[in-house]
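Hi F.,

I've been meaning to write this up properly since the lab meeting, where we talked about keeping a consistent format for the predictions we share between groups. The idea is simple: the sequence comes first, exactly as it goes in, then the structure tokens exactly as they come out, then a line or two of notes. No screenshots and no reformatting. I'm using this chain as the first example so we have something concrete to point to.
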Amino acid sequence: EKRWVPFNGAITASQLQWLDQQLARADAAHERAVIFSHVPIYEPASKAVTLMWNCDEVLEVVQRHRSAVAVLSGHDHSGGYAQDERGVHHLVLPSPLEAPEGGDAAGTVHVR
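Output, unedited:
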């Protein structure tokens, strides 16, 4: 199965370090964190071809922190959802282009 395409992209080492630091702060403050990314990082929620190039590294950082409760992304126009083994919710929002004519292209997320 093909994994990644040239326009998926990745996050840099400094961005990954920043994410790790922000999630560590949220852990210490007993907060919940929702991560937003255009490109998905977890294959069961998205097709392999639509994943971030360094999704494994990013997922490892996310799963290391108890504050991380969800990752919301796009990029995969058909959307998807999966919960990883640590319990982090991965929601890939479908493209408004995929909404039926006259249908809704918006939603609400409640974090508890």
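Notes:
Helices lie at 13-28, 55-64.
Strands lie at 33-37, 68-73, 80-83, 89-92.

If this format works for you, I'll send the rest the same way.

G.
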